[in-house]
Amino acid sequence: MEQKAEKQIQITLPDGASRSYGAGVTGLEIAEDISKSLAKAALAVTVDGVQRDLCDPIYADAALAVITLDSEEGLEIMRHTVAAQLLARAVKNLYPSAKLAIGPTIENGFYYDIEFESPLSTDDLEAIEKEMRKIKESGAPIIKSLNSKADTLAAFKERGETYKMDIVERAEQADDFQLYAQGETGFIDLCRGPHLPNLKHVGAFKLLKVAGAYWRGDSANAVLTRIYGTAWRNDKELNNYLHQLEEAEKRDHRKLGQQMDLYHFQEEAMGSVFWHPKGYVIYNALEQYIRRRVNDAGYKEVKTPQLIDNKLWVASGHWGKYRENMFVVPDEIPSTDDEGPVVSDKAFEKLMALKPMNCPAHVQIFNQGIKSYRDLPIRLAEFGCCHRNEAHGALHGLMRVRQMTQDDAHIFCREDQITEESVAFCELIKNVYADMGFEDVRVVLALRPEARAGSDEVWDKAEAGLQEALVKAGLEFEEEEGEGAFYGPKVEYHIRDAIGRSWQCGTLQLDFVLPERLDASYIGEDGAKHRPVMLHRAVLGTLERFIGILIESCAGKLPLWLAPVQCVVATVTDSADEYAREVFVMLKAAGIRAELDIRNEKINYKVREHSAEGKVPNLFVVGAREAEERTVAIRRLGSKDQSIENVERAIAALVQEAQPPF
RNA sequence: GCUGCUGUAGCUCAGUGGUAGAGCGCACCCUUGGUAAGGGUGAGGCCGAGAGUUCAAUUCUCUCCAGCAGCACCA
């Protein structure tokens, strides 16, 4: 092959083979050297693990791998090109005054943030998509160039791309700005690359939705229009993905909650749940399960007031930092006069607030009487009902509500007990999540934020303590800088919902600040007063959110111990009504949540309704035969088969199976 | 809170500048049917709230409220 320079470099391929090339050889040339078909399929390369364009020259010995569309990396590069080249250019063609901001890839797709002169709606996507196809058909080569800061700025200034100029101006580098052009079309985009060498490699894509997003993610900045899309290797993969999205929609807890008659929301109490009888069964079963768990783990359950004078919130620091998210109530008897104001101006001199958290109240219990170091740790648990005035746009079904019940607890302990208590908590949460069948749990250790209370030594100690606990519990976790609470670092347990959105459920937070602010103390071995450390912790997080995630993760088919209706006795004809009643009574007596369906409907209809709508795990079908033989025909949810079983034995088995896991 | 979209029967959704329609559900009747929709009849709506344009508004415009998607927020 042609020698680019005298100096030779060694390129190591993934199979271990080593080849020699002149310095300055490109990834494409190497791919061509390996095989023609590989060169044709090549999208980019990795050089020592770093993604590079095919046209980038290589000057030193390196390990090289060719990226094709078969790999996840290749797919991501293709998506990136669809966003930055196809979508961006299509938008500029149709809306010349649009200003491009950024267009990264995300899981399963990509987006591009763009400023438009007039609002864009979903209906406009079709035209943009059509334009994208046109551009794709052109098969234009994508040409990369490296440019100085001045040239890059000039190029974007000419095009009125003020956001791109902002990015370049803020960049630390002096030059080597990568611009990608499409042949001679005049279109350019700034990008870290790599990109496809050619638009011909683009697979199947679809634009999905538009939404607003702040420039640089800051709500003080302008809102840009974000166009979301997805791209796949071929139509089959694309359709597969779109089908998946549809399926996920069917698992949405808001939809299932209505279908299964679990709960509802309405305007007059937005963001707060009306639990229906069936939904409240789940709620109660979960609460009782956690109650048994924390009892076993040495917690004492308490109940604290809903409405507390703001003096306490001032003292705890919530009033200063968090007031805008609290519901504040004047402590005055309201006037019944239709004309005048409901409360007087004076009423605002004494304010109360609905508690947004339980911790200050738990400190009040701790503070009653004098505590000795021998008393510690003290673990106070509460199914605390809290109110938070959340931003309206944040509300989301059961996942984000304004009134929530946490399976909250606070552990007051000595500093030397932090690790032990943290390890015990990690064990507890591991067991609970295992009982619930959650495997895809992401654990995050959130470290000190910029604005924080407490000295660096205290933070060092706190972070190390949590880290040690996580390691001891054998958990894999990610560390996130700056994400901790102002009063201490925290461990967060995130679980994904049906559509892949991640929600924080369990949490463990160390707090050295609140005991100080609320003057909690214990008498140490030395006879002197000491500050206890506070561990805030929740396993499920909030019952509301956890139930939402639970419903989505099992598509409404809850495990038997949580199922609102565990068994329906359904008759084939009314000749079995009497026997069905008898079976129903037996089930109730055995503690099974049962329903009786003796409606004048066909058995097909009943089976369909209880299965598809109610997600009832067990159907006992009874007809003349069963009444005669004192049996039931058991049909399990999701099964086509049925088994005939003696009624007493069937009920005994069901009772056995319906035992909670703890 | 910000941007965009949506709001019609209990639910899912059509539709129109002259105050409304379907399917499911519900009620009643027929049907007694053996494991994912048997048939008929009927009731049911201030077309999210308020204002404006118009002879006339559920329909067009504006404001508000709520929901949805995303962003920001989540002590």
Task: Provide an overview of this structure.
The mean pLDDT is 92. The chain has 20 helices and 36 strands. The protein has 662 residues and is of the alpha+beta class. The strands form 9 sheets. The protein has an 8-stranded mixed sheet. The chain has 4 domains: 61 residues, Roll (Ubiquitin-like (UB roll)), CATH 3.10.20.30; 176 residues, 2-Layer Sandwich (Threonyl-tRNA Synthetase, Chain A, domain 2); 228 residues, Bira Bifunctional Protein, Domain 2 (BirA Bifunctional Protein, domain 2, 2-Layer Sandwich), CATH 3.30.930; 91 residues, 3-Layer(aba) Sandwich (Rossmann fold), CATH 3.40.50. The chain binds one RNA strand of 75 nucleotides through strand 14, strand 15, helix 8, helix 11 and helix 18.
Largest sheet, in brief, is: 8 strands, mixed
Strands, total number? 36
- In the CATH hierarchy, the architecture of the largest domain is 2-Layer Sandwich
Q: Which percent bin holds the helix content?
A: 25-40%
Low-confidence runs: none
Number of domains: 4
Fold-level CATH name of the largest domain: BirA Bifunctional Protein, domain 2
The structure class reads alpha+beta
Q: Report the portion of residues in β strands.
A: 25-35%
Estimated radius of gyration? 31 Å
C-alpha termini separation: 70 Å
Backbone shape: globular
Strand order of the largest sheet: 18-23-24-31-28-27-25-26
Please work out how many helical segments DSSP would assign: 20
